[in-house]
Design brief:
Blueprint (H helix, E strand, L loop, with lengths): L5 E6 L3 H12 L4 E7 L2 H11 L3 E5 L7 H9 L8 E6 L7 H6 L4 E4 L4 H13 L3 E2 L1 H16 L9 H6 L3 H11 L4 H8 L3 H15 L4 H10 L8
Parallel strand pairs: 1-2, 1-3, 3-4, 4-5, 5-6
């Protein structure tokens, strides 16, 4: 909302990484880093106390990893979930589906540009999902393997047919899965914002998702996203 600051808690066991994130985010109008945590337990405690709009959590942290932090702050059964963006290095990006299932509303690589980091914070504060383009490319490659019959275990496609989603609903699911916002979906599919929101409600009911982030997780889990090309 105009005039409102987005409060952010940054959790990473490396002090230099936390300092870098703080420098980037504090330089942005309307964003303020209100707390830092060096491990997962501290992150959960700090987030519960400060109730920031966004939590940035590294996956590998002492005492509690970022996936468990996400589940405790935003996962199924959490009464008042927070917006968590998970950040990791490239060789750990296979955790993205678990992070999304645990309630994350963003997944970024540590080598993401400052602009993408800021965009992820804004998207999380709105409740939108943003997945790093590099992660999206990696997941699309997994789906290409699925079509060739050599997919890694865990990519399961039978649920797509069983879901009862219409062609238009699947179009929207695929766009959500690659991080499109509601407005971008409107522009790409030539639909009004109210129509997109109506479709989202139907999709959530059909795939038993609480929000657009769980829709994205469902899409990747069931191979609903078309490979590039």
């Amino acid at each position: 909302m105009p005039g409102m600051s987005i409060d952010v808690v940054v959790a990473d066991d490396q002090e230099l990484v936390r300092a870098g994130f703080r420098m980037i985010l504090d330089a942005q109008p309307g964003i303020e880093v209100v707390g830092e945590a060096a491990d997962g337990v501290e992150c959960v405690e700090l987030a519960h106390r400060l109730r920031p709009q966004v939590v940035l959590a590294d996956i590998r942290m002492p005492r509690l990893d970022g996936l468990e932090v996400t589940r405790r702050l935003a996962g199924p059964g959490v009464a008042d979930p927070l917006n968590v963006v998970v950040i990791t290095t490239f060789d750990q990006d296979d955790y993205v589906r678990t992070a999304l299932r645990n309630g994350a509303c963003g997944f970024l690589l540590k080598d993401a540009t400052p602009a993408l980091l800021v965009e992820a914070v804004h998207a999380a504060a709105r409740g939108d999902a943003l997945v790093s383009p590099a992660v999206t490319v990696r997941l699309l490659k997994r789906l290409e393997l699925a079509e060739s019959g050599t997919a890694p275990s865990g990519v399961e496609t039978s649920g797509v047919e069983a879901s009862g989603l219409s062609v238009r609903e699947l179009d929207i699911v695929r766009l959500i899965a690659v991080g499109r916002t509601n407005q971008e979906i409107c522009d790409e599919l030539f639909l009004s914002l109210s129509t997109v929101k109506t479709y989202l409600g139907r999709i959530q009911a059909k795939v038993e998702a609480r929000n657009r982030v769980e829709i994205a997780a469902w899409a990747w889990e069931h191979g609903a996203v078309r490979p590039a090309g």
